[in-house]
Structures are given as structure tokens and as C-alpha cells.
Amino acid sequence: MRRAERFVPWRLLAPALFLETALVLGPLVIAFYYSLHNVRFFQIRRFVGLENYARALESPEVLSALWVTAVFSIFALVLTFVLGFALAVWLERDGRFATVMRAVVLVPYMIAMLVGSMLLKWLFSQEAGLSSLALGPFGLGDVSILAEPRTAMAALVFNAMWRDSAFAMIMLLAGLKAIPPELHLAARVDGASALMRFRRITLPLLRIPMLITLVRLLVHFVNILTFPLILTGGGPGNATEVVVLKVFRLGFADHVLGQANALALLVFLANMVLVGILLALFRRAGRI
């Protein structure tokens, strides 16, 4: 191989590497620099070291936002994954009905998060929503779903499940389609039941699609902003204020960009830890 040919791959990768550095590494460096300073309205005033990180970890509002994020992420992840898995298994066989239902399930995912959240906010509203009409016959027409902490969190989780279960279905359906049908046929000939085939063939061969789906959904839910910002506004009170919404308010409402970037970097590190834990659990499950 000539020397000039050795640099061909690097020349082809150069545009992508430049964009990755400019759009990912560059903002991370700027965010870290801001997090070490007292920054208000994009004006760097003085160096404060790790003071912004300490304030973020000691703030009751931030700790509350972390707890809300954990609750929302766990419920949304479990329910969305289970619903997506059930849809994938249900619609695995090709046919006219399955094709139509796949298209129906994909509709919420094709709608922009902003539009979908505004639609659900209208549906859940007490004045013009359908929830009051549905609860009216039971004497609960005056109940405002978005005005109670528990029901507001349930609405937020429903928003995530309603939209992102289609993504889980697509990923898991692709994994199901990749399983050779001969394996199930051979197991059926040997007398294996449907449950046994599901446990011994389907689940082991779906480990990678399941891992990709869970990691993607986990990162998405931990870093969600549009759902709580549009649907509940973080309310009532701070009952649905997730940590990314807190970062948004620190940066664009309170204009304390140093604290906002410090909290954002802590969230970034938390994402890395969560993904690492999830990968370790799957590796351990693969050895058992």
C-alpha cells in the first residue's frame, strides 16, 4: 500500500471528526469553563472553582429535581419498554392487520414532541379536555389531572409511554425478525412449549436489541425537557420538575449560567454512570 493511500481513511473521516469536535467536544469544554466561574447573562465575572458544583449538590430544589427525574425515568422506562415489547410480540407476524396496527402505533412517534405534549395538555385540561368528560359520569368532573402532584406525574409518564413505545416496538420487532424461524420450528418438533421457546430462544437472542432499546430510552428519559416543560411546566409546585428542566430554568430564567453548566455536567456524568451500570448488568446476565 502506497503511503498516500494510508491517509485516505483519515481524509474521509476528517469532516465527521471536525463536526464531532465542534458540536460535542467544543460545547463540553465551554460548559466546563463556565461551570468554574460566576457567569450571569453570558458575562464571566470571577473564578469560583467548584462552588457551582457544591451549590448544585446542596440545593434542595436540585435534590428534589433529581428525585423527580429518578421516579419519572424508572416508571417511564419500565412501562414504555413493556408496552413496546408486548406490541412487538403481538405484531410480529406479517399480515394486513399487523401492517395497519404498526402504522397506527407509529403515529405518536412521528408527531413532534412539542405538538404531542401540547395535544395531551389540551386533553388533560379541566376546561376543554376530554378527561373531564370521561370522569364526569363518575362524579370526578371537577378533578384537574395536571393540578395534583401524583396525577400530573402519571400524565407525564403517560406522555412518554404514549410516544416512545413505538420506538421500543421498532427495535424489538427488528430483533424478533432477525431470529431464524428454524430455531422455533426445531424446538416445536422437540416438544418445547411456547413459553419455553420464548425463554430459551427469543429472550437470549434479543439481548442486544433489548440493551440498545433500554439504553436509548434511559438516556432519553433522564434528559427529557419537552414533556415536562410543555405538559406540566414542572408543576404543580415542583412535583414534575425534572433535573434538565431545572438546568433550563437556571440558565434561561435565572441567568446563572455557571450553576446551570455545573448541573448539566453532573447530569452528563450521571448518564455515563447509568449506561455503564446497564451494560454491566447485561454482561453479567449473559454469563449466567
Key descriptive features of the protein:
single chain; 288 residues; mainly alpha; MetI-like fold; 14 helices; 76% helix
Named at the architecture level, the CATH assignment is Orthogonal Bundle
Order of helices and strands: HHEEHHHHHHHHHHHH
> What's the total number of strands?
2
CA-to-CA gap between the ends? 45 Å
Structural class by secondary-structure content: mainly alpha
What's the helix count?
A: 14
3D shape: globular
CATH hierarchy class name: Mainly Alpha
Total individual domains: 1
Give the % helix: over 70%
CATH superfamily: MetI-like
What ranges have pLDDT less than 50 throughout 5 or more consecutive residues? none
Write down the CATH topology.
MetI-like fold
Strand content: under 5%
Oligomer: single chain
Whole-angstrom Rg: 23 Å
Across the major sheet, the strand order is 1-2
Q: Average the pLDDT over all residues and give the rounded result.
A: 86
Largest sheet: 2 strands, antiparallel
Question: Explain this structure to me?
Answer:
With 288 residues, the protein is mainly alpha-helical. The protein has a single domain, classed as MetI-like (MetI-like fold). Helices cover 76% and strands 3% of the residues. It has helices spanning 3-6, 8-35, 51-58, 60-90, 96-110, 113-124, 130-135, 149-177, 181-189, 194-205, 207-222, 226-232, 243-252, 257-287, and strands spanning 37-40, 43-47. Strands 1-2 form a two-stranded antiparallel sheet. Helix 4 runs antiparallel to helix 11 and helix 11 packs antiparallel against helix 14. The longest helix is centred in the N-terminal third of the chain and has 31 residues, at 60-90. The radius of gyration is 23 Å and the shape is globular. The model has no long low-confidence stretch (mean pLDDT 86).
